[in-house]
From TrEMBL:
Gene Ontology molecular functions: FAD binding; oxidoreductase activity
Cross-referenced Pfam families: BBE, FAD_binding_4
Keywords from the UniProt entry: FAD, Flavoprotein, Glycoprotein, Signal
InterPro entries: BBE, FAD-bd_PCMH, FAD-bd_PCMH-like_sf, FAD-bd_PCMH_sub1, FAD-bd_PCMH_sub2, Oxid_FAD_bind_N
Cofactor(s), names only, from the UniProt record: FAD
Ranges where the FAD-binding PCMH-type domain occurs: 97-271
Signal peptide: 1-22
Name assigned to this protein: FAD-binding PCMH-type domain-containing protein
Cited SUPFAM superfamilies: FAD-binding/transporter-associated domain-like
Domain of life: Eukaryota
Length: 584
């Protein structure tokens, strides 16, 4: 025991000396923060204490696999920048003005997450938890106050059990890895979730992520049957231990408000040996407005659950076709859980105006259809193991997105107005996901995500750009905000619903006021009602019970009912005895 203590002490002293030297040699000066008790904090001292806390507690909480020490990276670590940038999908958060984490903790076992939570809480550091980095507002890896980033990329194990039709998936796995692992075991099993292969399941499964099988099987959150989560006390809870209220909340309500998800247990769904996909382009002059108007009711109300017709609206830069003029263009992405012959019959009966042709239909396995959809229009044929790549590729860009739900068809006249507004922007994009089917059958309160029967479709407003600088960013932000404002009369009301998977700080945020996190509302915030509707009150009750001091917080987490959380960034004195660092 004495030998182990000596070794531990030597290790901590070495880490501490390296960290002090790194801080003193950095071009950045140490800052101080004034809390509500006006306590001045020495950042270097607190950082050293945090590192020591990680080291000693990692030995205590080890999973006994021999890998006890937690991988932790500081801004002066060689690989810090590459790790931080590896999963930033929205490139506006790569700017030098974005506050970077004081530490990146990269757990290789569950106990490392427990220790990171315990030590962050003890030393007054907020945490952010990143799985795949697809949080569109960057809230999984940015903050306005000093924070620790828990990056889950090492926790990516997937255990598929075909006999029981389920799988355990660690939170750092990507959708591509999940789909590939399922297909390795079976060609007639799948999972209903998003299209991008690099999306991390930790966040996506907690915010009701949707994809081409949403009309048949609902959202990803609808197929979660168990979970393992680290709470604010550093305890690991499964479904039985956390109880049904908390389990309800983390399915669709965003797990980041309640803890750190370690793994999800998912229900596998049946898929046929052959599915049919199609990508159908139509130009504006081919009756685009009439097609969109008809699509609004056909895709969500008139076709069977097995048929998914997603609509994408963009602007063509093929000016030669239109004598130098840019124009609206459509793309219909189709997946049918069945053969092409049956799809052709359905489309001829329900949507003959689209004029789908046999040579536009492609029969393939479900896993091949996943690759097809994940390519986002890229015509290059790729093998299924491409799904295992974590390279951001086309997933990384500068962009802004907002969301709406449409409950009544938008008139042709208003659609034409939308097209005109799109032509004002360089690279605008609308995606319309058809609802209906299974999504209409699940009650609003079944899980925390409430967006169900009343919706025809969800719409996402996107703008992309390449220019650098705040002025360019604000110009593109303003365009999408103006379009969103224009759409007000034509979308859902009381509240105007929004999709939590596309977080949007424009609709509201928790604010830091005099060192306190506050929602400034006496009940559910306006943005909470937009995301969760009547489920918002229950989410607040769950938060108040399981995280009453709001340890898990960001600009759009649910807050406990008192609405106030002190950000306690304070000095922690070094103990005389090393055992004082051990949590018992």
């Amino acid at each position: 025991m004495a030998g182990r203590r000596c070794s531990l002490f030597s290790y901590v002293v070495f880490v501490a000396l390296v960290w002090v030297h790194a801080l003193s040699s950095s071009c950045c000066t140490s800052s101080t923060i004034l809390t509500t008790t006006t306590t001045l904090v020495d950042d270097v001292d607190n950082d050293l204490n945090f590192l020591q806390c990680l080291t000693f507690n990692s030995m205590h909480y080890s999973d006994h696999d021999g890998n006890k020490l937690i991988p932790v990276f500081t801004p002066n670590t060689t690989s810090y920048s590459s790790i931080l940038s590896s999963s930033i999908r929205n490139l506006i958060f790569t700017s030098s003005s974005t506050l970077k984490p004081r530490f990146i903790v990269a757990p290789t076992q569950d106990s490392h997450v427990q220790v990171a939570v315990i030590c962050s809480k003890k030393h007054g550091l907020q945490i952010r938890v990143r799985s795949g980095g697809h949080d569109v507002e960057g809230l999984s890896y940015t903050s306005s106050v000093p924070f620790v980033l828990i990056d889950l990329f090492n926790l990516r194990a997937i255990d598929v059990n075909i006999e029981d039709n389920n799988a355990w998936v660690q939170a750092g796995a990507t959708l591509g890895e999940v789909y590939y692992s399922i297909a390795e075991k079976s060609h007639v099993h799948g999972f209903p979730s998003g299209q991008s292969r690099t999306i991390g399941v930790g966040g996506h499964f907690s915010v009701a992520g949707v994809g081409p099988m949403l009309r048949k099987y609902g959202s990803a959150s609808d197929q979660i049957i168990d979970a393992r989560l680290v709470n604010a006390n550093g305890e690991v809870l499964n479904r039985e231990a956390m109880g049904e209220d908390l389990f309800w909340a983390i399915r669709g309500g965003g797990a980041s408000s309640f803890g750190v998800v370690l793994a999800w247990k998912i229900n596998l769904v049946a898929v046929p040996p052959i599915v049919t996909v199609a990508s159908i382009d139509r130009a504006y002059e081919q009756g685009a407005t009439e097609l969109v108007h008809k699509w609004q009711t056909v895709a969500s109300r008139q076709v069977p659950q097995e048929l998914y017709i997603e609509l994408n609206v963009g602007v063509s830069n093929n000016t030669s076709r239109l004598a130098g003029r840019r124009a609206i263009e459509l793309n219909f992405k189709v997946m049918f859980l069945g053969p092409s012959k049956k799809l052709m019959q359905l489309m001829e009966e329900k949507f003959p105006e689209l004029g789908i042709k046999a040579n536009e239909c492609n029969e393939m396995s479900w896993i091949e259809s996943v690759v097809y959809f994940a390519q986002f229009g890229d015509k290059i044929e790729r093998p299924t193991d491409w799904l295992l790549s974590r390279d951001a590729g086309d997933d990384a860009a500068k962009f802004k997105v907002k969301s709406d739900f449409v409950t009544e068809p938008i008139s042709k006249t208003r659609l034409e107005e939308i097209w005109r507004k799109m032509l004002e922007e360089n690279e605008p994009h609308l995606t319309m996901w058809p609802w209906g089917g299974r999504m209409s059958e699940i009650p609003e309160g079944e899980i925390a995500c409430p967006h169900r029967a009343e919706n025809l479709y969800m719409i996402g407003y996107f703008t992309f750009w390449d220019e650098d600088g705040d002025e360019a960013q604000e110009r593109h932000f303003n365009w999408v905000r103006e379009l969103y404002e224009y759409m007000t009369p034509y979308v859902s009301k009381s509240p105007r619903a929004a999709f939590f998977a596309y977080r949007d700080l424009d609709i509201g945020r928790n604010e830091i006021i005099n060192g306190f996190m506050s929602s400034a509302y006496s009940g559910c915030s306006s943005w909470g009602l937009q995301y969760f509707k009547s489920n918002c009150e229950k989410l607040m009750q769950v938060k108040s019970k399981f995280d009453p001091h709001n340890f898990f917080q960001d600009e759009q987490t649910i807050l406990a009912e008192q609405h106030i959380c002190p950000i306690e960034y304070h000095t922690v004195h070094r103990p005389r005895d090393l055992d004082a660092y051990m949590v018992v």
